[in-house]
Design a protein that fits this description.
There is one protein chain. By secondary structure, this protein is of the alpha/beta class. It has two domains: 2-106, Ribonuclease Z/Hydroxyacylglutathione hydrolase-like (Metallo-beta-lactamase, Chain A); 115-273, Rossmann fold, CATH 3.40.50.360. It has helices spanning 51-62, 69-76, 96-106, 126-140, 155-164, 183-190, 211-221, 230-237, 255-273; strands spanning 2-6, 16-20, 25-27, 83-84, 115-121, 144-149, 167-172, 199-206, 226-227, 246-249. The strands form two sheets. Strands 5, 6, 7, 8, 9 and 10 form a six-stranded parallel β-sheet that branches. A four-stranded mixed β-sheet has the order 1-2-3-4, covered by helices on one side. Helix 4 packs across helix 9. The mean pLDDT is 94.
Length: 276
């Protein structure tokens, strides 16, 4: 008798685990795997401690999706498991809970005191609404967040906030194929600052083609911040539901638009809070 439970993004969107009830064997797809090429099938016959290989696989394949480890832990918490038979590497039949707990520990958010700065300009408040969604998501993840309207705030205050932040979101509405307001003055100043180690992301609303968002991305790429892009997300994690820059046509009213913004904010949150 087979029991199926969905565990998405560990490490692809359609991943699920399979549990054989009579034999108490968990078939977890790529989860709990190791990247090894050895003759011995079982971890207890390896002749060495597999922990380093186990953690190495986790770091390379699972950790970029660590938010979804919570779903996995919930799925297996009530299962009596006497063997884990993953798609890669050793079959585990001893110390089962040790390896499950290792995933719980490695995916835990232990880095505290992170800060984010959001700077925007807006025409009809659509980009402002995007900024608010990003802010709410970051704060839900216990990340201290400051939000600045570049047309209503002191440039000095904004730049000081960026200096003290761990992540920076910069957004604008698009008018005449460009940014609006005072935002460009802020972006020009970033080139003269040492911002190494900070995460950066561009966002904005638009009605036609949204050139301003791409201009912001270009400015950010000219700094020494780690700038988020769809290309890098795909290459580093395989995720296709996270997009950078975050581009929303018109107002972020529909649930799918809101979710698109949240996906990006949660991705940055995970990067900031990662303890691994």
């Amino acid at each position: 008798t087979l029991l199926f439970k969905e565990t998405p993004y560990l490490h692809t969107a359609e991943t699920m685990i399979t549990y054989c009830i009579e034999d108490q064997i968990l078939f977890p797809c790529d989860i709990f795997s190791t990247h090894v090429a050895v003759e011995n099938l079982f971890s207890d016959e390896a002749g060495f401690d597999i922990t380093e290989d186990f953690q190495g696989y986790y770091a390379a394949i699972i950790h970029p999706h660590r938010r979804y480890v919570r779903t996995l832990l919930e799925a297996v918490k009530d299962l009596e498991i006497r063997m884990i038979a993953p798609s890669h590497g050793f079959v585990i039949r001893e110390d089962i809970r040790k390896y499950i707990e290792m995933y719980a520990t490695l995916s835990r958010e232990t880095t505290q005191g992170k800060k984010a700065t959001i700077v925007y300009t807006t025409i009809k408040n659509s980009t402002k609404k995007m900024a608010k969604i990003i802010q709410d998501c970051l704060q839900e993840n216990n990340i201290e967040t400051e939000v600045w309207d570049a047309d209503k705030s002191s440039a000095t205050d904004i730049l000081n906030s960026i200096t003290s932040a761990d992540a920076v979101f910069i957004g604008s509405s698009t008018k005449y194929a460009d940014m609006i307001g005072n935002l460009e003055n802020i972006l020009k100043e970033l080139h003269n600052m040492n911002l190494e180690g900070k995460l950066a992301a561009a966002f904005g609303s638009y009605g036609w083609s949204g050139e301003a968002i791409e201009v912001i991305q270009d400015y950010l790429n000219g700094t020494n911040m780690t700038v988020q892009s769809t290309s890098e997300v795909i290459k580093s994690t395989g995720m296709t539901h996270v997009e950078f820059p975050v581009r929303i046509r018109f107002s972020p009213k529909e649930p799918e638009k809101v979710q698109k913004i949240k996906n990006a904010a949660e991705f940055v949150s995970d990067l900031l809070l990662s303890s691994f």
